[in-house]
Design brief:
This protein has 14 helices and 22 strands. It has 504 residues and is α/β, with parallel strands linked by helices. It binds zinc ion. Residues 15, 92-93, 130, 251, 298-299 line the site of zinc ion (ZN). Residues 1-29 are annotated as: Disordered.
Length: 504
């Protein structure tokens, strides 16, 4: 049965560090192979044919062989040989326009460097929350395809609930569809070192990263950089070539104090300091021209005053529902499937002229790529940016609204194309050359999981031949880029290889 929504956990839907010992007792039996996973595999088989046929066309053959030969060539820092190496760092909740505050000099300096790349911003996938997006970045798949459709969600086939803070659940591979970049790397003869990235503690496809650090809190960003350097200092045959680290401070400050707070600025200084420290650490090893580094985030953050609450029980009888999930959205699981149409219709009528919209799962707008998975609730209410759904019980127990003191907090999870949800993407290293990009190829449009073309999201690519800051793109593209940088053959995904190939 789905977990009832009148529980103490419900008020903690706002994102926090995702290992919570208090919830580790929520042990639930898991079946080794779910129907959902089988469906995902079937989807992959279908998608593989279409995606590979369309987006790999003219690229995989001789070009791929040449690329791999090129990237497999060892580089030297003067004393040691290095394989092509990539470091990926995620600053959770780092909104794109935070870069304009003038307090992140190390990141800002990349705009003027020859071997750097910065996108104007990166679009998160919907919903714009942490676990779905970190796993989209890792796999190149939309959440509806990889199956991590929220931080907390119910699977009607497994009859179990995924909860991102439950370490026993997140370590269970049955939840995680697709192939994350660290598995792609390990399967193709590389070693991976992963520090706290969502999904990395589950043996997906039977593969764990060779070096793995599970989430713990708190760990200072500089300490995380030191960990990366420890891995880079290993001998060649034991050294990982794909390294990733997750840094949560900016997200935490944004939630608790809102995006415009001093505390967020303090967290940005901390993040930027880690960038400077990383660059200095690489320079000290003479690795600046050997190692590629990608900095990105999973989503942005919006200011939400605490009087902009939409109370669910004012709209629908809670006794008709088994579970409400998806904060700040409201994903509704009716107790009886036969009630779904009636509940939806009642909500649809009430939503007229209001600051929220309601959809049946199958009618969610196609641009969200959020309809084709049984884990998505049958009814989804999406608020405008700045508003949140709550039950009164949830609100009363929300630690962020605690004390009954009116305050503004930070929330994300909204329409992934809203400016407040925009993420960052910056990179530097030997594979990046500012001003050397060419226009988007005609066949490089992103494709959905069925291989069907759809228009690129966001502004049309402009002539970027001399631009310092490149046009925005969707985060489903990152997986292909990482594969490209490492010389890996990507698994089937929703991105496009042509996009990745034009970056180098
Ligand atoms: Zn996040």
């Amino acid at each position: 049965m789905p977990r009832p929504f009148f529980t103490e956990e419900d008020h903690q839907r706002v994102e926090e560090p995702f290992l919570d010992p208090e919830h580790s007792s929520e042990r639930k039996p898991v079946s080794p192979y779910s129907m959902v996973n089988k469906a995902v595999i079937i989807l992959f088989c279908v998608g593989l044919t279409a995606v590979v046929a369309l987006s790999v066309r003219g690229y995989m053959g001789e070009n791929q062989a040449n690329l791999r030969a090129h990237t497999e060539a060892l580089r030297s820092n003067g004393t040691h040989a290095f394989r092509k190496t990539v470091i990926l760092i995620s600053f959770d909740g780092f909104r794109a326009d935070y870069l304009d505050r003038g307090i992140t000099p190390h990141l800002h300096a990349l705009r003027d460097e020859a071997n750097a790349f910065q996108a104007e911003y990166m679009n998160p996938s919907f919903p714009s929350i942490t676990f779905p997006n970190h796993y989209t970045i890792a796999t190149g798949l939309y959440p509806e395809t990889h199956g991590i459709v929220a931080n907390e969600f119910y699977d009607p086939v497994l009859n179990q609930t995924f909860y991102y803070k439950n370490d026993l659940i997140t370590r269970d591979a049955q939840w995680w569809g697709g192939e994350p970049i660290w598995v792609t790397a390990e399967r193709q003869g590389h070693l991976a070192g992963i520090d706290m990235w969502p999904g990395s503690t589950a043996p997906i496809g039977g593969v764990l990263p060779t070096y793995l650090i599970a989430f713990s809190d708190p760990v200072a960003p500089r300490t995380k950089v030191d960990q990366l350097m420890t891995w880079l200092d290993l001998p060649l045959d034991r050294r990982p070539t794909f390294l990733a680290s997750y840094v949560p401070e900016v997200d935490h400050a944004g939630h608790a104090y809102s995006p415009d707070s001093r505390q967020v600025n303090d967290s940005l200084v901390l993040a930027d300091d880690a960038v400077g420290y990383l660059r200095a650490s690489l320079a000290a090893r003479n690795l600046t021209d050997v190692v590629d580094v990608v900095y990105l985030s999973d989503h942005g953050m919006a200011s939400v005053p605490d009087d902009q609450i939409i109370y669910l029980e004012d709209l629908v009888g809670l006794d008709l529902l088994d579970l409400v999930s998806g904060y700040p959205l409201a994903g509704l699981w009716p107790k009886h499937a036969s009630d779904t149409a009636r509940i939806y219709e009642a909500l649809r009528i009430q939503s007229a002229g209001q600051r929220w919209a309601v959809y049946l799962r199958e009618d969610i707008p196609a641009r969200f790529h959020y309809a084709h998975n049984d884990r998505i609730p049958p009814i989804v209410c999406i608020p405008e940016v700045g508003w949140t759904f709550y039950t009164r019980h949830q609100y009363d127990h929300s630690h962020l609204y605690s004390g009954k003191v009116s305050k503004t907090i930070g929330v994300h999870g909204y329409d992934n194309l809203d400016p407040t949800m925009r993420a960052i993407f910056l990179a530097h290293g030997p594979s990046f050359h500012a001003g050397k990009l060419v226009g988007q190829a005609a066949d490089s449009q992103p494709q959905d999981s069925a291989g069907a073309l759809h228009p690129p999201i966001g502004p049309a690519p402009r002539d970027v031949e001399t631009a310092t800051i490149q046009p925005p793109f969707d985060n489903v593209e990152v997986y292909n880029l990482l594969c490209h940088l490492l010389g890996l053959t990507p698994s089937a995904n929703n991105g496009t290889l042509a996009w990745a190939s034009r970056v180098e």
